Amino acid sequence: MPPKNKFLKEEIIEAAFQIAKEEGMDGITIRKIATKLGSSIAPIYVNFKDVEELKGEVISKISQISNEIILKQDTGDKFLNIGIASVKFAKEYSVIFKDLIVRSNIYMESYDSQVMHNIIEAMKEDEELKIFTEEELKDILMKMRVFQVGLCIMATNESFASELTDEKIIEMLKDTVGDIVNGIKVRKNKK
Questions:
Q1: Number of domains in the chain
Q2: Residue 151 lies in a domain
Q3: Structural domain containing residue 85
């Protein structure tokens, strides 16, 4: 008879997520999760075949949290909402942000596949961006990501806290989005 499922799958994922918040993705081990749950490792293996499968679920949870933060933004500009949400995520989940963005790892590929398609689709719905091809939208997104990652790294560094108020971050994102979009429009019109 298989062991009784003592913990819900969601509880195990949440415990692993809490470890990732404190230590990063590499901090997630079956033994640490069991300790956090006050359990043996058996209930974890009832729900997951290995730690990598569990880490995949943590990445899904991170994607869900990212999407929820995006949906809470209400500037009327989907692209700006994404930028603001990214900075908020970086501030609130700085260890995970640094782990996924600053370090080279397999987890970002998974995150990108779950989130980037949705961002491009949202960009296609923006009236100002409808003139661009999908390749041009990807170019705009890549340029914004480069700026945004730098801004997020600065936002997670407490030494910039007084300079990078929420208002200043929003202003910088708006200006940079406009600069990038207008620059690509100008180049497109010259062709």
A1: 1
A2: yes
A3: 74-190
- The torsion defined by the Cα of 170, 172, 176 and 182, in degrees rounded to 10, comes to 80
Closest CA to 69 of 49, 86, 94, 55: 86
Residue 9 lies in a domain: no
- Each of the 191 residues of the chain gets a pLDDT tens digit; together they read 454 457 789 999 999 999 999 999 999 999 999 999 999 999 999 999 999 999 999 998 998 998 899 889 888 877 788 888 988 999 899 999 988 887 766 766 656 666 677 788 878 888 888 899 999 998 998 898 899 888 888 888 776 767 778 888 889 988 998 899 899 989 888 87
Q: Is residue 12 assigned to a domain?
A: no
